[in-house]
Amino acid sequence: MKNGKKYVKYGGQLLTLLLVLGVLCCFVAKKEGYHMDELLSFELSNAQYNPWIVPTQPVGRLAKFMKEEIQGESLGETFHNLVDVGMDVVKNRGNSKLLQYKADVYPEPVWISREQFTDYVTVNKGERFQYFSVYFNVKDDNHPPLHFMLLHTMSSLFPGVVSPFLGDIINILAMLGCIFCFFRLGELLEAHQLIPSGCGKVWGISAGILYGLSVGGIRTALLIRMYGLVTFWCVLLFYLHVKKWLEQGFGSRNKLLAVVTMLGFWTQYFFLFYCLALAAVTGVLLIVRKRIPELKRYIRTMLTAAVIGVVLFPFAVADVFSSGRGVEALQNLGNGLSGYGYRLGAFAGILVESSFGSIGFGLVVLICLAGCVCAQIWIKRGASAGEGGSSLREKAPKSRDGRKVVLLMLILPVICYFLLAARTAPYLVDRYLMPLFPFAAMILTLLTGVAFGVFGKVGQARGTLHICHVCMIGIVCLIGVVNIAAYDGTYLYQGYDRQLQVAQQYKQLPCICLYDGTGYYENLLEFAQYERTLLLKLPELEQRQDTSDFTQIQELVVLKKGIIEEEAALAVLEQYGWKVERVLLPEEESVYKDTIYICRKVERQHDGGLM
User: Fold this and answer.
1) pLDDT > 70 fraction of the chain, expressed in percent and rounded
2) pLDDT at 386 over 60
């Protein structure tokens, strides 16, 4: 009986979690291909001490050293080798074997086998749970290691597999964690009378539906990067700040606050935008309320978290201040207002579209909500005047003060994050705003609640309140349906299965990939099918010195990236006697704008004719 009452009490929250889980899993099941950065995530997580695919150096220096000098036939032998290497470094320093060790670097790009490409993106059974390898890989990247370690954990549980599920399950669990924070936050606000009795659960459920079924939420779940996880740390950090402000304060028991701060820092550096803004708001509020002892303890907690975070991952300092991406962000910040209006408009459009499914629908909803809120305020003022003016305000000054604090903590850090992200983000894409999507859902839930009178009258009749709750849930479900229907397939890369099938069909052949930049990362799963692959820029193919292996290849697959001019590429291939037999996949049918050809060797007669 007790359990039955418990299920009834929390049934709405459980249904919300199951609804969001079901919808997100359906979208994950439809995902076929990957963004280049997603496959890079798999490589940084799973390639053993080999963070980058370099066509002239397929095996990294440390990867070669670990294989030849460290890894033994048993754990004891491996440990003994590690001790010997450590003693050698301590004794000989720069002249030690480790620091003098050279990788195999070739003057021209070399063939990379399907087995090597498979090793880049998957975990073999003997490579499971190798977190030091992940740590080494990401120290040369512009991101901290936590998300990559979690992705490596999932890959270790499913060795030899690359699947959207491995990365998207991390995002989905993070999103469900955000929604669970909404539930707890709603109950907390209700317990402290910041919202009327009976409204806490409906607030949390509404925020969960708005976030979990939004375009922004779906994209967060699908993109196999660290943004879903850092979003969770931001939401949890906000919840902890509100809870500590309303309950025991910041004078003691701040360990969880410090841990969440460190975990966010180890996930993505944009977390600092939100964390520092929230800390600044909290510090000012503590000063205004003259809670100086708490302020000192709070500052000590955050500084401790910062020191531990940097000590355990010191490469973060170089990532932020001297890496290519870090320098670019600082330069963008230093550009002041130049082009800032355009960037603000672009990111504002992304935020509205991600919350409502489309900018037009979002503007209509916001205008309607603004009108309803104004009407509610006008009605409330009229009622207050009839009851003697300020009688309602005098009844609960503590609640009004707590409500103001929570609103300041909710809104000001979001504004600061948005302004900083719009200025420093290298690209005008949604991933940099993903930590704001759940906060947009919370703010929208508050607006909707006020608009429908849910939070307006503390003493209203239970039946009227129930009707308001039903209307509120109905409107957020409608917004969710519009979002799902409007989803444009971003990050699904549907159609890639056909491209992968081409690679599987011709897996007995070698492949030449003609690329420019680093676009070949999009095709790593295809290269793991072909017998071997040569990654070349067009001038490298045109000026290649060692062509002895070309004479032995009678048939091969050529994958041309869209940025490479077709006429020039085919002309260079013909120089080596390869002529296109047919196009296996035209550019317009490829999700990555690739063209895939099957080419055969054409022998020339001495008189210039063809045999």
Assistant:
1) 88
2) no
The answer to whether 390 and 384 are in contact (CB under 8 A) is yes
Instruction: Return d(Cα 593, Cα 495) in angstroms, integer.
Output: 11
Whole-number Å distance between alpha carbons of 173 and 228: 9
β-bridge mates for residue 599, sequence order: 556, 580
Give yes or no for a contact between 265 and 416, defined as CB atoms under 8 angstroms apart.
no
Over the stretch 433-479, which tens digit does the pLDDT of each residue have?
Answer: 999 999 999 999 998 888 776 665 544 555 566 777 788 888 999 99
Residue recorded with tokens 């006008």: 378
pLDDT in tens, 293-347: 999 999 999 999 999 999 999 999 988 887 767 777 767 777 777 889 999 999 9
C-beta separation of 222 from 28 below 8 A = yes
Helix-strand-coil split of the chain, %, nearest 5: 65, 5, 25
pLDDT for res 72: 67
| Residue 610 scores a pLDDT above 60 | no
| 3-state secondary structure (DSSP) of residue 452 | coil
The label of the residue with tokens 């919350």 reads 355
Residue spans of beta strands (DSSP E) within 104-255: 112-113
Neighbouring C-beta atoms of residue 214, cutoff 10 Å: 27
Cβ atoms within 10 A of the Cβ of 375, count? Answer: 12
- Residue 592's alpha-carbon distances to 131, 426, 493, 519, 561, in angstroms, are 32, 21, 9, 9, 8
Residue 391 pLDDT class (50, 70, 90 cuts)? very low
Please state which architecture CATH assigns to domain 496-601: 3-Layer(aba) Sandwich (3.40)
Is residue 460 left, alpha or beta, with left meaning phi > 0 and alpha meaning psi from -120 to 50?
beta
Q: Is the dihedral of CA 226, 229, 234, 235 positive or negative?
A: positive
- Token look-up 């200025």 returns 423
Residue intervals of the chain classified under CATH 3.40.190 are 496-601
| Cα 520 to Cα 292, 330, 435, 564, 593, distances in angstroms | 56, 29, 29, 12, 12
* pTM score, whole prediction: 0.91
What region, left, alpha or beta, does residue 321 occupy, with left being phi > 0 and alpha being psi -120 to 50 degrees? alpha
Evaluate whether 577 touches 604 at the Cβ level (below 8 Å): yes
Gap between the Cα atoms of 590 and 499, Å rounded: 7
Structure tokens of 275?
């964390």
Query: How many Cβ atoms are within 10 Å of 304's Cβ, its own excluded?
Result: 15
Instruction: Tell me whether strands 112-113 and 511-514 are parallel, antiparallel or unpaired.
Output: unpaired
Structure tokens at 72: 């033994």
